[in-house]
Every structure is written in C-alpha cells, then in structure tokens.
Amino acid sequence: MRYIRLVFDWIFVALTWFALTLLVAMTVILFSDVFCRYVLHFSIAWADEIVLVLLIWFVFIALAIGVRKKVHMAIDFLSFFLPKKFLEGVAERFVDTLTFCFGGVLIYFGIVLIRIGSYSTLASIPLPSYLEYIFIPVSGVLVLYSALIDFLRSRSVEPEEDILDRIFMGKAQHHV
C-alpha cells in the first residue's frame, strides 16, 4: 500500500506542475492572439481551440487535486443541527462514498467521450477530438483513489503531511 501511495503522490505532484504549465501556456497563447488581432491585424486561427482544450485539461486536473486536498464545496447548514460525533463518522463516510461514485462516473463517461471523439478531429487543427476529454477518466481515477484513501483513513488519527503542501507551500497544512 505504501508504494501505491508513493506512486499516486508523485502523479499528483507531476499533474500539479502540469496544471501550472497549462496556466502559463493559456496566458501566453491568449495574450499572443489578442496582440496579433489588435496590433498586427490578424488572428491566430488555432489559438481559441487550443486554449479551450488546455482549459478543459486544467479544470479536470484541478478537480482531482481539490478532492485530494478536500477543498471541494460543502454544505455546512446541517452541521449546525447534527452532533459532531455523527458528522465525523457517518456523514464523512457518506461524502467519501458519494465522491468515490463521482470518480466512477468520471471514468465511465470520460471513456465514452473519448470513444466518441475518436471519430472526429478538432476544427482548426488536425488532431483527434478525444484529446479534449483525455483527462476526464484520469481525473476520475485520481478522485476515486482520494475518496478511497479518505474512506479508509481513521478519523481519530492526525492527518499526515501532504507532499503537495511540502513541495508547493514549503510546509505542511492540515485540512481545516
């Protein structure tokens, strides 16, 4: 189990660096397109489509990282009325189960979209359409893994230092 965790830790690190690279690439491409359009009076034909593909990739990578870091949306309304013991036990396990199911949905429908996209190409460049959807099932696997780890982790144990915090923040930050 330790080796599996190590592999997934480094996958998350690599995808975080990749997401940062995607942000820089989107910014450069959009700036270049706007500069060319308004200063040089021509447009880069493929810029909008490439930025859209990179944005889709970024969103699904960020989704997986958000689930791992537990920064996804939560509804706290019920937490005022329910006992803390119930929230720490049943409710958190229920959320982990729903998150696990969501990861499965991402995997299934991501594969369906990839199959559909394999029959066509992108409009402005001759690349297969499935490239837009390639990170949906990848994100699903990572969401599934994070939900399973959260489900199996004992709630009484102090959270371990996360490698993403250590690398990108310089210190450990525990879940709030």
Structure characterization notes:
By secondary structure, the protein is mainly α. The chain has one domain (2-168). Helices cover 68% and strands 0% of the residues. It has five helices and no strands. It has helices spanning 2-40, 47-69, 84-117, 135-152, 163-168.
Short description:
The chain has 176 residues and is an all-alpha fold.
Helix amount: 55-70%
Write the element-wise H/E pattern from the N-terminal end onward: HHHHH
Largest sheet: none
Q: Report Rg.
A: 20 Å
- From the structure provided, what is the oligomeric state, counting identical versus distinct chains? single chain
Mean pLDDT rating: 87
Structural class: mainly alpha
How far the N terminus sits from the C terminus, by CA atoms, comes to 26 Å
Number of domains: 1
Principal-axis shape: elongated
Strand content: under 5%
Low-confidence stretches: none
What is the number of helices?
5
Task: Please name the defining characteristics of this protein.
176 residues, mainly alpha
SSE map:
Blueprint: H1 2-40, H2 47-69, H3 84-117, H4 135-152, H5 163-168
Helix pairs in contact: 1-2, 2-4, 3-4
